[in-house]
Write a structure and sequence with these properties.
7 strands, 45% helix, 239 residues, 9 helices
Amino acid sequence: MAHLQGQERAQYVQSMFARIAGRYDLMNRLMTGGQDIKWRRYVIQQANLPQNGRLLDIATGTGDIAIEGLNQIPGLQAVGGDFTVEMMQAGKQIPERQPIQWVGSDTLALPFPDDYFDAVTSGFLMRNVIDVPGAFREQMRVTKPGGHVVVLESSPPKKNLLRPFIRIHLNHIIPTLGKLITGESDAYRYLPDSTQQFKDPDTLANIMRQTGFQNVTYKLFMFGTVAIHTGQKPKTAKS
């Protein structure tokens, strides 16, 4: 499935997330041993949001990152955007996530004005989009000059002694767990496949720089299989 391209890939991803929406959060906790909670907390810290600021969490899913923003930042306006309605509907059913403003959104054509958000965040989005530079251009467009874009994404396993064990986890344990928990083994074969075929952290950082972001950095987690990239829109940028 990860070999799909263009609109066919986008349609598959949308359908896949619709099917697993109800158990998505549970699977994230199980696959990561609960570490994803720490990663999302770090994402909001890196976003450097002001009090009463505006956050766009694109590909918000059930709103995990958006609610972390609301928990950390007083008076925050948190907008959760996603092109899979079923994921947002699952998030809306969680009482504490009611303050999130849910908006149907295509990451390649965001329905927001220029220079609107203090920060844009995403979790496990970029390996699924059909145009990574295009997605970064849109995120930069809607971010205020000086604001930050923070990307939580899985990364291909590094070539080291742990790689065989990580590949077993990705290729066998996760699909089996996905089948047991969600009944969707195909979806949880696609997710590890897309991770292993995605760009390494240095390449993704270079794409951010080529898009125009400044002060691009990243931090690795979970034996290098997860990276959080941060970039800043130039303060003098014109959208």
